[in-house]
Amino acid sequence: MIWRSCLGWTVLALLLAWLPAGAEWSTDPYENNLICTDTSGQITPKIASDGAGGALITWSDFRPPDGTTDLYAQRIDNDGNLVWDPAGFPVCTAVENQWSQVIIPDGEGGAIIVWHDYRPMAPDTTDIYGQRLDALGHPCWPDNGVLICGASGMQAGPEMIPDGAGGAIIIWLDARGTDQHIYAQRIDAGGASLWLTGGVEVSPITGYQSTPAIASDGAGGAIVTWSDLRGGDRDIYAQRLRSGEGARLWGNEGVLVCGANDTQYRPELVSDDAGYAIILWEDDRTYNNRNIYAQRVSPLGGTEWTANGLLVSGAIGNQSYPLPVTDMLGGVIAVWRDHRADENDLYAQRISPSGTFFWHTDGIPICDVIGDLYKASLVSDGSGGAIITWEDRRESTPGLSLDIYAQRVDDLGMGLWDEDGLLVCGADGSQYFPELIADPQGNAIITWYDFRARGGQVYAQYVSADGGLGPSAVGPEPVSTSLSLDTSGPNPFSRQTAIRLNLPTPGGVDLGVFSIDGRRLTTLERGTLASGTHVFDWDGRDQSGRGVPDGIYFVRLASGAGAVRLRVVLVR
User: Can you give the pTM of this predicted structure?
Assistant: First the structure.
């Protein structure tokens, strides 16, 4: 009955999508789009795609008169219209606080939202609840959510991924036993738990576990990583859970990813469709200097890079809060907070599946203006690069309040938006905790909570792929549609092919050939060209004149007008 109700609302939502738009995305970084009109106070928004170019946003809300928090949500479409009630739709209004929510799309225009909940009203006790909203914001599960875990003690800090079948896999921190451990549960599209009641213990070995992260294993299950005190110091472990029943595929102990001396913590991971995972973490093995390390783990649980991890950045000062995203070729783009210049900057590195660094040793700066940067979020741009957003307290900001900035970096490490980052929100007061999504074309929607008004409210901003605010870029005319790369020779080819590029305006270009794992093999042109069409030949050789093996290669053109990529196939 619940399923049929959700289906009906989804069909109605699709019909309503044809109605004329009544709003539009802001193009002003001092205005932006208000997501909730209620003035009681909203904080900590989380965001997911609605699958139609818009976004689903959920937040903690202070409108209960007793001072507790409830959960609300809103859908904003690709034109900037608020689809649901302007004050938001209630996700959970049960007694006490609902907190630490996470959100994923349900694949039908709605969302699954999970949180930890204080409604047991007992000391040191919270439970894990979840709710699914359809495309119109109506609940598909019982009012105030389904109980996912109600074990004794505290269950908190859920993380979640789609299970590929309309449901979700959830992990959380759990204090039901002597030590804090990590548990997991899979729920279906109807909200029913599919694994052991109360959840599957990810690793039952004695020792305090913390800071878990989760990614898909490519087969309907999950890969989980965490920081673990079983050896006396904090080490990094990982586990793979089978989709069907949540079985531990890497043994009760899990896989030791890093057991180096001193402390390793805050692991994050990204996975591919073949079940490989790349894990990054903060590492204190070097006295008085925290660094970023990484390790690749195979589907069978083997570690593939240097024992105890590959040093990603060993720069002076501390590096912390690593965030990974796929480079779409089996590797990873990692971004972290960096203190090498006595302030918090953002740096990044791209790593191939074999552990090769593509960019400068110790990383490239995403933003290193004078001032401090905090709370970055990161997503793929759909073209092998990444989009990053962050809180920014740069020296030039009036009153040293926090603003929201963003940058897009391509697969070669080139910043595609404003050199020091694009100003997304510079309104009065401070803006906190930006989160974002992006579509395959590189357009992004960023949300945050904002203190331009007393109490705080949730705002959002659409950023186009070329760095303009709103779907139509502000400032320079978008030229990405005029920048093109094609072949005027055979493709596939055996001896030589001709690469034809069209440059809409004169300027500098970098035209190179890259292997499928992102290594530059040769440069066809690097310099200044007039506008118009230019043709360059590639004979299937690298920069040293050696013939490259048969296979797929990428020709990439980067210029002031943007970046485009072309696939060519060599078959001798």
Answer: 0.82
